[in-house]
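Below is how a single chain appears once it has passed through the pipeline. First comes the sequence as given, then the structure the pipeline wrote out for it. We keep one example in the README because the format questions we get most often are answered faster by looking than by reading.
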Amino acid sequence: MDYHAFLADFPDTYLGVGPADAPRIALTFDDGPGAATPALLALLRDVRVKASFFCVGTAVARRAEVIAEIVRDGHDLGNHSFSHVDATTQSLEAFWHGDVVPATVQLERLAGRPVRLYRPPYGEISPGQVRRLGAAGHTVVGWSIDPGDWSEPDAPDHVRRVIDTVVAQAHPGAIVLLHDGDDGHVVRHGILEIVRGLVPRLRRAGFEFVGVGDLLRLRERANRR
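Resulting structure:
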């Protein structure tokens, strides 16, 4: 989402990268929960990594029990819309009442806590929509590294390419865009191999894994100084 220059006008509402004062990195997973999400959560427990999950309402309806597991494991939970429609194709009212609010209500009911992190599908959003989210206390979360894990997942070098891209672009405060949600009827099993190979390489490079909520709190703390 860094290609949306107007987001610089919303420093309190938009988070595209975290503070660069330490080697922290946030792994984020979109479009779920999917069929691979339970195994991904088990893997994250095994490797002791905190992550952030941006969930789609229609996918949540199929796997509601996974939301409690995400929360129980200490991960951040975010709203990725109810139906994964490009927000810029919607009127402000349709965006708010048809996509943001229903997904928020659904997630908060299952999580038992407020959900105020929002990532728009495809990273597409308008200034008016950002203002509406900000006025309601939501933070729009982008990313600083997109390794294209959504592209050609069956290619022989897919896992290696994604891992190498993240490692090459890793920087303090990075937010990495990954996906755990099903692509139609295709399960993203490759995300398990990606995470299994990526975590030790980033740790060897000195990175600490945090949630986007941690990056947001660190930014707020720095702004108060």
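Residues 17-224 form a domain with the TIM Barrel fold (CATH 3.20.20.370).

See the next section for the split statistics.
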